[in-house]
Structure formats: structure tokens, C-alpha cells
Amino acid sequence: MITILDYGSGNLNAIKNIYERLNIPFEFANTKQQIEKADHILLPGVGAFDETISTLQKKNFIDILNKKVLEEKTPILGICVGMQMLADSSEEGKLYGLGWIHGKVKKFDKNLILGKPKLPHLGWNSIEITREYPLFKNINPAVGFYFVHSYYYECADIANVICQTVYGKIFHSAVNRENIYGVQFHPEKSHDNGIELLRNFANL
Asked: What global pTM score does this model have?
């Protein structure tokens, strides 16, 4: 069962459609009790860093997420801002992140980016898989994924980077530590590659 956190941030219907197509059981969760029962957790995210962290705090989700992820080792996948919240902090806001994979979220330097519009990084981009992992099974790196973001994750430990992408500079576009995964791109908008990645997460 995939438990998709419903906290008002993320393209939930697109994720729902993919899991229905794959016949993979899922549910939307907006209570601590639902999170408690989860065996896989998906943390979507569309919006600003502080706003998203604040919503988790207001819903009292932080403690139960720490228990499930850090103690029970429940697999979790953060998407876009959901990935950025795994970091310690972000230049986009003032609040602390979850701190599960050490690093900082930084804003792209427009001076390094050719062409316009420079920000956000919008559209399809190829990827480089830096560590072979089941999450990327049957993924075509040349096709890549669909991105929408102005900030990127900079991991403190390169060993936690499993994918990187070039946009003005090389940035870390997927991270992993033990049962914790994050992707900067939007699998729910990435056609075949996105479907495969969401399938792969369900099979972890």
C-alpha cells in the first residue's frame, strides 16, 4: 500500500491515476493514524519550502514521520519540494528541514544559465544515474524527466547522490540514504519514465 500524504501540496490526481493504471493499492492520508499504518510513504510537494514545512508542523506530522522513517525504516519518496524538505535548510526560507539527508537547498545562479527564461528550470531534462539502484530500473536517462523548480538540493555527502542533472551547473536531482529517497523532478508528469519510477518505488 502506497500512502500519499495529502497536505494541500502536490499533483495528487496525477499520482493517483498512475497507481490506478498500475493496479497498485494506494490511499491519500491526512491524519497521523493513516500515516501510522503506512508501509510506503510518498511525500509530494508543489510550492515554497517554508510553507510546506509549516503545513507538516501544523498537522503534527513531523513526529509520526520521524518514527516511521527513522525508527521503523518505512520507505519514503519525496517529490520536488517533498525532496527538498529532506535537507537541513533552504535558501528559499528560514525554517529547518527534516534533516534526514544532510544538505542545503540553494537557488540556481542565473548567470550560469544560457537562454531564457532562466528560472524556473522548466521542462524535460536528461539525467545521469550516478549509482545504480532499483528506483531507476527500466529508466531511460537520455529521455529524463520533467522538472519545475528554481532551487536545487546540494547534498553534504556525495554518497547520498544517486542521480544528477545539468542546468547551468551539475546539480543533485535524486538522493538516497537507506530507506529515504528524493527526486527533484516530477515523475507524475514524466510519462513512461515517471510511471516506471513510481512502480519501482512501490516494489522497494
From this structure: 0.95
